[in-house]
Amino acid sequence: MRNNLKIYRAIENITQKELADELGVSRQTIVLIENNKNDPSLELAFKIAHKFDVKIEDIFINDSNKK
User: Fold this and answer.
1) Where does the HTH cro/C1-type domain lie (predicted)?
2) CA 12 to CA 42: how far, in whole Å?
3) What is the average per-residue pLDDT within 43-62?
């Protein structure tokens, strides 16, 4: 799954640490998500989308159905 988290974070001008603290996760979790090394839980994906006031699909893109 790809994501636009880094873009949304840049738009809001917040650091990985600031986002992590606000969401109650570690900075490493944000790093792993941004680098497509880890997919967030559904709960965390909703929290992220809510933080940026967008739909989950605006941040997270599911490529698994592409051929």
Assistant:
1) 5-59
2) 22
3) 96
